[in-house]
Design a protein that fits this description.
CATH superfamily: HUPs
Oligomer: single chain
Number of domains: 1
Largest sheet: 5 strands, parallel
Mean pLDDT: 91
Distance between the termini: 35 Å
Shape: globular
Number of helices: 9
Structural class: alpha/beta
Length: about 180
């Protein structure tokens, strides 16, 4: 994981994008950031996802999540993680690219790649004040719910933007290819 972060940092430095690299952190650094936020009385919001082909639904969801607190930390499924939980052929966009795009969003304060199938380890380590997922989840299904609630935190869902999903976007592309409208 560290090696991948260093690769991204090197590319960003070469392109004059140093400020973006500050948002991508290994879990050990996020622990310190989380502790300082707690001491300062700041509310930390956590969410996670693949964010494979970033679209309007993702952007609106992340913006809404950030409005719930003072800091938004995003757990980003690594390529290895995505291959365990999504259909063959995913992710479409490599983890380094997904991380760069997410880090460029003003409402994402920090992000951390994880290789596991779920963000349970991140949530158990960081213990955010608010844990959020999209409205397609039921509260009792959200990984980490027990940990957050046991520490007095909240677990919330955010309504999805209608007709905006990676799956629907991929289906549209396939349909356009089948009709000969895309190469």
């Amino acid at each position: 994981m560290e090696e991948r972060l260093q690769t991204v940092a090197k590319i960003w430095n070469e392109r004059g994008m140093e400020n973006f690299q500050e948002k991508i952190k290994p879990l050990a650094e996020l622990v310190d950031i989380r502790q300082k936020a707690r001491e300062a009385g700041k509310t930390v919001v956590f969410t996670n996802g693949v964010f494979d082909i970033l679209h309007r639904g993702h952007v609106e969801y992340l913006a809404a999540a950030r409005r719930l607190g003072d800091l938004l930390i995003v757990g980003l499924n690594s390529d290895a993680s995505v291959k365990k939980i999504k259909p063959r052929g995913r992710p479409i966009v490599p983890e380094e690219d997904r991380a760069v795009v997410l880090a460029a969003l003003q409402f994402v304060d920090y992000l951390c790649l994880f290789d596991e199938e779920t963000p349970a380890k991140l949530i158990e380590t960081l213990v955010p004040d608010i844990l959020v997922k999209g409205g397609d989840y039921r509260i009792h299904e959200i990984v980490g719910r027990e940990v957050v609630e046991a520490h007095g935190g909240k677990v919330l869902t955010i309504p999805l933007t209608p007709e905006r999903s990676t799956t629907s976007l991929l289906q549209r592309i396939v349909e356009l290819v089948k009709r000969g409208l895309l190469p």
